[in-house]
Amino acid sequence: MRPDDPFDDAVTARAVIAADGTLTQWSEGARLLLGHRPEEVVGRHAAELLADSAGPLPLPEDRWSGTLVLRHRDGGTVSVWVLAHHRQPSGDGPGEWLAVTPLEATDYDLPDDPLVRKAVFQSPCATMVFDQALRLRGVNDAMARLLGLPADHLRGLRPTDIGGRPQHSELERQLRHVLRTGRPHDMQTHMKARAESHAHAWLARLAPLTDRSGRVRGVCVTAHDFTEQFRARERLQLVNEASSRIGTTLDVTRTAQELADVCVPALADFVSVELLEPEEGGDETSGRLSPPVSLRRVAQQALAHDAPTGSAPVGELVVYPEDSPQADSLAAGHSIVASVTSGDLDSWLSEDETQARRIEKTGVHTILSVPLQARGATLGVAAFARSSQPEAFTHDDVLLAEEVTARAAVCIDNARRYSRERETTLTLQRSLLPRSLPRTAALEAATRYLPAARSGVGGDWFDVIPLSGMRVAMVVGDVVGHGIQASATMGRLRTAVRTLADIDLAPDELLTHLDDLVLHLSEEAAGDSGPGEVGATCLYAVYDPVSRRCTLSRAGHPPPVVIPPHGSALHLELPSGPPLGLGGLPFESAEFELADDSVLAFYTDGLVTSRERDAGQGEALLLEALSGASGPLDETCDRVLNSVLVPGGATDDVALLLARLRGLPSSQVATWDIPADPALVAPIRKQVLDQLAAWELTDASFTAELVVSELVTNAIRYGAPPIRLRLIHDATTLICEVSDTSHTAPHLRRAKTWDEGGRGLLLVAQLTQRWGTRHTTEGKTIWAELVLADME
């Protein structure tokens, strides 16, 4: 009995006594039973109430029940069944008597029907009978064995007196319901016999007992033990729960934590999951392991906040020596159950005093260690410990733990393989993306790349490519799909774009060649089952800082956003163009004149589209985040990602490229129209030298004079008028350009010993950093680039 048990003191005769036997409390029920008022007995020795005052006073160390003969106030005697116990667990506090009921007959006798009594007390099922006051009036032998008390000692008890468990409180509530309604009721409950360590599951039938007039006078409770079926159902439920809760993500740590969460408290009071460190090269360990074994704890769960099987926090490397359950199970390759009470852990705990103190403090009595194995590889070990649950691990528990752990091991192995492939793909993609952006006089750029949070690394890319004449190309693309194949395709397309940009193709022509390449890649990827799945979108733009004009073309890609120096962000209206890989459809270009300090924003659709919203909402957020982008571009990139991306990360790859445009001042550009007369080359060289002196670039005069002379002479001899010479310079570079209306491009060749010509372009190539030819709608331009630092 406990002080919080639901007794009605007006009915129950209760007396509380101190350790010395002095009565300290006397209930109203005790007064009705024995006639003594509280003020007459409180403070007196309880032994004085015994009919035989010389008899012993039941003050047990824990609990005592039996019959006593007590003296009534009028001098008579009353035989009662008494339950006595100590209130305090330590046994130092006062004791308590509970006179449950007189043993004489009362008005609550059950009907004396021989058939009822035979059905109740001779039934092979565990049976007990309660009267209208919910007093236990009789039990058969099967029920007495179940409750662990003699039948005579059980008479007069209430349901909560049998053990004080919450299940018995529910039993009392259901008994009252049957008494009130007169209808039978079925319920499930758990009861534990004193001789057993674990509770049994019972299916109880509560049937009303009536007299001849049909009046309900009591309730008959018949219990059927279905513990095995109940436990089988619990095991099946745990396996089903494990299949739905473990492996919800492809994250190793979270999957291990899901295993621990599922098994506490259904299977154990504490669960830890520890994994082997991957071997060099990423290979998993196969076969059995010899102790000592180093494992990294990745997850744990406990009923209490303190982990009972070890003080190692999540993430720490733990070394298990020989004779520890974890090392032994990995060495044996199968599950091991170790009992503290049986001495299975003595050798291990004698060497690890910290572990021994911790196990003793938390009361762990059994540890079950199960290896994590999947696809022939050993991943680690899961340890299950019991402390609050008094039962040791049974054979069925071991089978259940192995079933759940096997499912988790496959999920952990899948997560590891996915993580390894994702890291490989991400490494590949990072190697294919530009490590740093080139510094050019035409623009300042900043970029961001984010792999998809859930679907894996894709084929998004960006690039900034310096072109001739101080121009610069900007490109953003998106390959369909995810994984290594998409990253590899992205690398091939980025290389192709750089190659095509190097020959100065117009944006629409470049996309046409890129479309042909994607068609070829699709044919290569095609199998016997059908066409390949290669596809991509792309946006290509070329900005000329001299004219401050930008030419753009796109292939199924989102249009760029422009942010004027003093205005709001808006989309540039471009012809959409088909995605790459369709073939046969043309691409169109559009040209815009952009003011200095304008910002162009290029992005992939992963930034503005998601499952939670449509592209229109994302684009509105993007325009809002880009408006007023006058600060540093890196800060603008971060603001865009924080404002536009949905919580939890992007569902697709995100590539973002911001470029602040800078026009070249007219003072850094000089242009001359060249007559088609070789005799006038000398005056042109003089004008070039004067211009270099005005620019304070006299160190480059000799080389520049030779280059200009060769290019102009070559244009006069082989080109078509009109001919134009242009010099462009910035802080580090001087560019010489000669344009004419002929479409014939010169080729570099090595002249033979007796040839009088053919050495001009070879000389230009030797004297300059780089040179080349670009075709225009009017003809061609031959250009050569000198690095001013080399001229000093």
Automatic annotation (TrEMBL):
Residues 16-44 form the PAS domain. Keywords: Hydrolase. It comes from the Bacteria. InterPro entries: Bact_Sigma-Reg, GAF, GAF-like_dom_sf, HATPase_C_sf, HATPase_dom, PAS, PAS-assoc_C, PAS-like_dom_sf. SUPFAM superfamilies: ATPase domain of HSP90 chaperone/DNA topoisomerase II/histidine kinase, GAF domain-like, PP2C-like, PYP-like sensor domain (PAS domain). Residues 185-238 form the PAC domain. Pfam families: GAF (PF01590), HATPase_c_2 (PF13581), PAS_4 (PF08448), PAS_9 (PF13426), SpoIIE (PF07228). PANTHER family: STAGE II SPORULATION PROTEIN E, STAGE II SPORULATION PROTEIN E-RELATED. This is SpoIIE family protein phosphatase. It comes from Streptomyces tunisiensis.
